[in-house]
Specification:
Layout (H helix, E strand, L loop, with lengths): L1 H6 L2 H22 L7 H14 L1 H5 L1 H6 L15 H14 L3 H8 L2 H32 L21 H28 L4 H25 L1 H23 L1 E8 L2 E3 L2 E3 L3 E7 L6 H20 L8 H8 L9 H21 L2 H10 L2 E2 L7 H35 L10 H26 L1 H6 L12
Antiparallel strand pairs: 1-4, 1-5, 2-3
Length: 455
């Protein structure tokens, strides 16, 4: 209904069409094979890897974020992960480097500088990741098993230095193009560009996996998978909308003959204040031992630490759940850590005090900051447990019904789908309201008192 109204609004229709065009280009690059790659061998090996379930163990999160382009060695194989990693690193460094903290506190000039640093770091990370990725493709270690070795089904028929350099340059350039397209969506389209592209990648993987389950396991288990996913999505929507509203009262003040303030608003504190970032952190950290075992160990006859990693640090319901325990603990720890650096109670209390606001029953300043910190800490506990359960529930449930090896999607996919979908709908509704109130804002008087809000 809302999107139908949006298409009847000229400016929103232009933004939606522009966003759709960027998405089409993004999906085209995600399906375009990289130069020097044998597309038939890649299709054979990626299909064999998915049927064995090894891809779900090692490349699940990375492959989801790339929209299946990682396992198909395409131009956009690196996907959005270098930019996400660079953004997280810069955000963390902002809390410990005074120079970055000063830039963050500035207006647009400081934010533009931080964005520039993020772009530089993204390119650096893309160069490093592409070098390792191309080496895995050249040596035949990108896919497990002897059937996809460099001799039987080589991914790179001509692994010369020129071919390797061309692949690396193409993939790094692909990451830069993704950044550019995301910024275009943010400036001229609907929603946050990077989130929209991630959402597109996840959707491209999820529906394909349902088809894969149907072809391999039939209708009953496909329906079971759909029921699990729909139930989790409903629960995620409920929790993502949940928030604690802390009331804020603004004192009245006279400026000339006008009265300002006197309004009552609230500070929304979400149950899931950290979003999906802790899950990405935990997944990436657990993928490091698996990646090291894939690159350094002997996959044909694993021994020692490689055998231990292959047995215990993979999502499986049939062995000791070391992976799930580590995943749970890491998500809890990263949730508390990320909330502590993104929500500063002292800063929120100080901003509220500057605008003449106060929490009823509390003195402005340190008492308000202490109360906000207490509320955030109590909400973070159920929020962290919620993230851990949602991240692991699809993997455990699908594994128990026997289709875990065919399903590459996880709780990360569902969290991204719901979060980005809700945010995009809210932005469309907000712009529709601005359009409906345009006449009132133009013809109305300027005598209405202004009310401050804190978000």
């Amino acid at each position: 209904m809302r999107f139908a109204q949006a298409f009847r609004t000229p400016d929103l229709r232009k933004k939606l069409v522009f966003t759709a065009c960027i998405i089409v280009v993004f999906r085209f690059g995600s399906a375009l094979p990289a130069p020097g790659i044998s597309a038939p061998n890649v299709r054979y090996c990626s299909g064999l890897e998915t049927s064995r379930g090894a891809a779900a163990n090692l490349y699940a999160v990375l492959n989801v974020f790339s929209g299946n382009s990682l396992l198909h060695v395409t131009v956009f194989a690196l996907g959005i992960m270098p930019y996400i990693t660079a953004s997280i690193i810069v955000q963390l460094m902002t809390q410990v480097i005074p120079r970055l903290q000063a830039l963050k506190d500035q207006d647009r000039a400081g934010q533009a500088k931080i964005t520039q640093y993020t772009r530089y770091l993204t390119v650096m990370l893309a160069v490093i990741i592409s070098a390792g990725y191309v080496e895995l493709a050249r040596s035949g270690s990108l896919f497990s098993g002897t059937a996809c070795s460099a001799v039987n089904h080589p991914l790179m028929p001509d692994p010369s230095m020129l071919t390797i350099a061309t692949m690396m340059i193409t993939m790094v350039a692909g990451t830069a193009v993704i950044m550019w397209m995301a910024e275009l969506i943010t400036d001229r389209g609907i929603g946050n560009g990077m989130s929209v592209l991630i959402f597109t990648s996840v959707i491209a993987v999820v529906f394909g996996e349902f088809e894969q389950i149907y072809l391999i396991r039939g209708i009953p288990l496909t329906l079971a998978a759909i029921v699990v996913v729909v139930a989790v999505i409903g629960f995620v929507v409920f929790i993502e909308q949940a928030q604690r509203r802390i009331p804020v009262q603004y004192a009245k003040r006279m400026t000339g003959r006008r009265v300002y303030g006197g309004a009552t608003t609230y500070i929304p504190v979400k149950v899931n204040q950290a979003g999906v970032v802790p899950v990405i952190f935990a997944s990436s950290l657990l993928a490091i031992p698996q990646l090291a075992a894939s690159m350094l160990g002997n996959q044909n006859s694993p021994q020692g630490w490689v055998a231990w990693v292959d047995r215990y640090l993979v999502p499986s319901v049939h062995v000791l759940p070391v992976y799930y325990l580590a995943f749970f603990v890491l998500i809890i720890a990263f949730t508390y850590f990320y909330v502590s650096i993104t929500f500063n109670p002292a800063e929120v209390a100080d901003n509220t005090r500057k605008y003449g606001g106060f929490v009823p029953g509390l003195r402005p300043g340190p008492p308000t900051a202490s109360y906000l910190g207490y509320v955030v800490t109590r909400l973070t506990a159920p929020g962290a447990v919620y993230l851990a359960v949602i991240a692991m529930l699809p993997m455990v449930a699908l594994g128990m019904i026997g289709i875990g090896s065919q399903a590459l999607f996880s709780g990360v996919s569902l969290l991204i789908m719901v979060g980005v979908g809700l945010d995009t709908v809210k932005q469309v509704e907000s712009q529709l309201q601005q359009h409906h109130y345009a006449g009132f804002l133009v013809t109305g008087t300027s005598e209405a008192p202004a009310a401050l809000t804190v978000s």
